[in-house]
Amino acid sequence: MSYESWILIVGSLAGVTCGITGCFLILRKLSMLADAISHTVLLGIVLAFIVSQSMSGIYMLIGAVVVGLLTAVGVQMLHHAGIQEDASIGVVFTFLFAVGVILITVFADDVHLDVDHALMGEITFVPWDLVQWGFLPELPKAFLMLSTVLVINLVIIGLFYKELKITSFDPQMAAAIGLPVLLIHYLLMGLVSITTVASFDSVGAILVVAMLIAPGASAYLLTNKLSIMLLLSALIGVSAAVIGYYLASWLDVSISGSMATVNGIIFALVFLFSPTKGLLSRKFTMKKLKMD
Amino acid sequence: MNDLLRMILLDANTQWVLIGTMLLGIASGVLGGIALLRKQSLIGDAVAHAALPGICIAFLLSGEKSLFVLLIGATITGLLAAYSIQFIISSSIIKEDAAICLVLSVFFGFGIVLLTKVSQTPSGNKSGLDDFIFGQAASLVGNDVKLMAGAAAVLIFITALIFKELKVLTFDPSFAKGLGLPTGLLNFLFLSLLVAAVVVGIQAVGVILMAALLITPAIAARYWTNSLSKMIVISGIFGALSGMAGTLISTLGEGLPTGPFIVVTATALFLISMLFAPERGLVTKWIKRIANNKQLRNNKLLQGEKRSGYHEL
Amino acid sequence: MNPVVVENLTVAYQKKPVLSNVSFEVPEGKLIGIIGPNGAGKSTLIKAILGLIPKAAGEIKIYDKKYRPKDRVVGYVPQRGSVDWDFPTNALDVVLMGRYGHVGWFKRPGKKDTEIAMECLKKVGMEKYANRQISQLSGGQQQRVFLARALAQDAKVYFMDEPFVGVDAATERAIIELLNELKRQGKTVLVVHHDLQTVKEYFDHVMLLNVNTIAAGPTEEVFTLENLTRTYGGKLSFLEKDQLIVEQK
């Protein structure tokens, strides 16, 4: 397969995976926690490297899940101890991220990981970073990781769709009918962690946040149905990745940055022009109401 | 080690850097304290990330790496981000967390796009701008440091001037309006101060970790007092301590970034406060609760005896 | 066997007790109003009974057993303001959520569940709005959807947190009819209630709460000026003028 098509495939996979998972974050008002996890996953990767001395995908996934959940638990604990939620998030993620950066600089000679790369991703290298898994032919590592994570996410969201839905809409009622609300919360945080780490190589820690939140936010303004919101979000994620790629190669700029920017532009358009919930249509209905 | 430390401390430039980070710590501690009470902690995070495109645009337009010009660019996009967040929340069903996250990541993504453009310009080896991501206070020299220190001092001064008004606005916005205070203007002033603190701090702490300097000292201070004024002062002191300690540690080794060490120091101060502060510290409270529970149980036994039977419907 | 028995329940946030030594029993097949001033712990009481918040001390029994959600004997209507009505879903879907406890893990609600949900919407007069996005419903309609969801739970005891707050007169009448219908079916309904004027009209039993149980029992015995004064303390002075007229009738 050609170089360009690999980049498009990996970008689209990241778009779908992040787009779907992100919807639940928006509905649960947990976007900032995803932002936090996407930063602290850096620490997970560094730790995984120090422990295993390899950059193999599976260790990175484990490290990411451990630190991602640690972030979620830390935030929960501080919040429980009486600190505002947003501030708890701010304290926890900046600390864990700082530790990650320090570890990278201290072990700079051993860790083959540069911080810029981790933050901004380098999707241009993705087609060359090949690995072989089992009987499969040699394939790009980012492709394998993202496909694995996409399958995991789809299976889990499929299996627990109604539980995720009710705990997002009405956690009190969910608890009253005996659902393990907290467990489902951590399950979702686990998904966010593996999604982040799998998207890491291609889009980087901070831009993965754009891919998690922006498509979902746009989809939220376009539909009244959760299942359609998930579908739209995945679609928007893919479109932003593809358009972002072509825009980047046309202008000769960072691909991941361009994908995030396109996501932002799509959101701005939806925000203004969405048929029911857009700024203009709302203004218009208000005017009409006044006229009547 | 001691000699090294003495050497560092006697160096004129290092002294300036220390004064700069101290003033920065005070400014961001104070403003962060108010932001915390206004539940706007993470807006600082978004503003910090949003500074990146501003820095790049300023560089692309002016073609030079004058710190002053870059900071003006950062201030403009920072303010734009803060207002975008408020606008998205007020005019759509998108909630605050998603709005902050969205603005933060999209602005930063756009900043990265511009950064690649900057590195392609003949004059722009991007290494200089790169430092804005993690902060390099120790390597700052001459006028840049003095600019940082001066700007931080001005911020502290302005905040002190309008502290009374900010206090009312924070505590009860509608009451502030009733008093005839220009709340819109005050809101703008506060956001501008916050953005300015973030922008000034970026070169020392970096865009990603700047949020910590706004949030962590303020949270730590919250444990020591219930009075707003005292909390702001303590928050400023914690900020100053973190700024200075982080800078010192990062000068000890070559290539160590300043920001992460400032954050780790601030978090250590926070943990100490959370555990051991008198009255509100967790350990203190835990000890009290044990004593309290014992008393509660004793009372209950007494009440149980007195009660002749419970109310039946 | 009494459906709900609470003994010496104490709930505390930090140091301050929100409920202290609350004890009462609820007879089967009655409408019970839980009455008390703001901050009396009315919602807390319901949440503690349902195990949504931890209790510091005390015993709670539902049909003589420790409350277990999987027994599915309890239906719950939270305060309308406790959820985000911008959630992308429609009225029928919300009612279907009431069936989730019956459906169980890994399964989707089936055709029969949808029929039951439609039936419940009909009972609250909302069948026309089944496919309406929930943010486009009025406050009263949203409350009816919540009630329909509780009906879909098909429980024996219902807990309702302030169902009458912010609803229109038509909804209030619909809710009352529904409560009476539930009573006729032998169900027990506990309602956190605000409006002293309607207490006598709506409820068979009342429980007056202000951190402690002030009094509990049949409405005509317990809902007296003296008990109310003890419940509301000084705040009653302004209530006396208009609302306790009902009392003297």
Automatic annotation (TrEMBL), chain C:
GO terms assigned for molecular function: ATP binding; ATP hydrolysis activity
Matching Pfam families: ABC_tran
Keyword terms, alphabetized: ATP-binding, Nucleotide-binding, Transport
Keyword Nucleotide-binding: yes
Gene3D superfamilies: P-loop containing nucleotide triphosphate hydrolases
Superkingdom, taxonomy of origin: Bacteria
CDD domains from the UniProt entry: ABC_Metallic_Cations
ABC transporter domain boundaries: 4-236
UniProt similarity note: Belongs to the ABC transporter superfamily.
Matches recorded under PANTHER family: IRON TRANSPORT SYSTEM ATP-BINDING PROTEIN HI_0361-RELATED (PTHR42734:SF5), METAL TRANSPORT SYSTEM ATP-BINDING PROTEIN TM_0124-RELATED (PTHR42734)
Name of the molecule in the record: Metal ABC transporter ATP-binding protein
